[in-house]
Amino acid sequence: MNHPHSPTIAAIATANGRGGVGIIRISGKDLLPFAQAISGGKTPKPRTALYTDFLAADGSAIDNGLLLYFASPASFTGEDVIELQGHGGQIVLQMLLARCVELGARLAEAGEFSKRAFLNNKMDLAQAESVADLIDASSQAAARMAMRSLKGVFSQQIHALVDDLITLRMLVEATLDFPEEDIDFLQAADAKGKLASLQTQLANIFAHAQQGAILREGMNVVLVGAPNVGKSSLLNALAGDDVAIVTDIAGTTRDTVREYITLDGVPIHITDTAGLRQTDDIVEQIGIQRSEKAVQNADVALILIDPNEGLNDTTREILFRLPENLKCIEIHNKIDLKNDNPSVENRSGSLKNETGASTIIKLSAKTGAGLDLLKHELLQQVGWQGESEGLFLARTRHIHALQTAQTELDNAAACGNHQIELLAEHLRLAQVACNEITGEFTADDLLGVIFSRFCIGK
């Protein structure tokens, strides 16, 4: 609904820096007088561009360009919205923004335009979040999936699930007034079958959400191993550029070096760590501390093994420092020195190597032989199954809400024939969890956290 007491807000909607065009966005109630004041008395027609000077209080021109007026409710926020499209210099934009404040607007908070669109039912919460995801998309695949969420693909699946959940809840709660007949009634209505169908429906949504979360969050990969084992060479090979210095001198990498790549649309953040070893070099010690922090935050570790020494004491000391549940891939680099062929070997259980890795890959960072095997294995480790039409971007909070709903449906399925009240409560809690995704039920403090992460002007 439109909030009559919401103040008028204004913000620069284009990115910082110089550009051909800069945009000021204003949202509030009854903004025609505002538009007339800044344009020298001109009255814009809704959704029609008006070329005009943008005037200061004394009538002098601050800038000129296009003024667009979107009358409520046919606007992004559901309120009256004005966009001033002028020149893209930061000084002139700040002058124009100051003029908007003089006319009664206040500076918008981060994400406040999208928040108002949500509060005025122009979009649900999952769609509002996809606005930020579309802006922040780090690959073409992520952008496509964010647009699907913005168009309502994710929300439609949640709404369909909730509708079926409400139908089942109605059946269950209708029996609470007739305790002698409840079991027969639920059997006749096939309540168990409807619940099983809901569980399957939710499992499919959860599987798609997990894939969307992978594409949104990506994965963190660290290169670890003894000094001079080829970590920097492998980073350069994966990045396709000389981002790390490579020499035959141990300890050349004295700090963490981060590089970003995409594999099949999935963002991969790779960190080349300083060789984890004992050293008296103070600068290198700082680099090693940063390396240990990167390892703690990693999803996958690539453990490079020296082709001449194998698993030596230095590497064993590094392995001792790795988190217990960290996924590991063992890399045998420099196969070009032995004229070996690239290969991949998968092991499990007691057959795992001494490094704890379930996969062993032989490759050459120098020639590139075997790099495709490594890239494929990284996607396998993170669980990526490839982009498909049904996928959408999902956030960590969406995953948690879906997991909660799954737990409640599982608990509901475990209820006995005479636990109707308990069954009804588990179904209610499952619906609450699903409604948190689209915002039908969301705490105000959670809304504040979500929209505070948006950029100003959105």
From TrEMBL:
Official protein name in the record: tRNA modification GTPase MnmE
One annotated Gene Ontology cellular component of this protein: cytosol
Binding site for (6S)-5-formyl-5,6,7,8-tetrahydrofolate: R25, E83, K122, K458
Gene3D superfamilies to which the protein is assigned, alphabetical: P-loop containing nucleotide triphosphate hydrolases (3.40.50.300), Probable tRNA modification gtpase trme, domain 1 (3.30.1360.120), tRNA modification GTPase MnmE domain 2 (1.20.120.430)
Regions crossing the membrane: none
Superkingdom of source: Bacteria
All residue ranges annotated as the TrmE-type G domain in the record: 218-383
One Pfam family linked to the record: MMR_HSR1
SUPFAM superfamilies, sorted: P-loop containing nucleoside triphosphate hydrolases
Cofactor: K(+)
Keyword annotations of the record: Cytoplasm, GTP-binding, Hydrolase, Magnesium, Metal-binding, Nucleotide-binding, Potassium, tRNA processing
A single BP term in Gene Ontology: tRNA methylation
Stated family: Belongs to the TRAFAC class TrmE-Era-EngA-EngB-Septin-like GTPase superfamily. TrmE GTPase family.
Encoding gene, per UniProt annotation: mnmE
GO molecular function, one term: GTPase activity
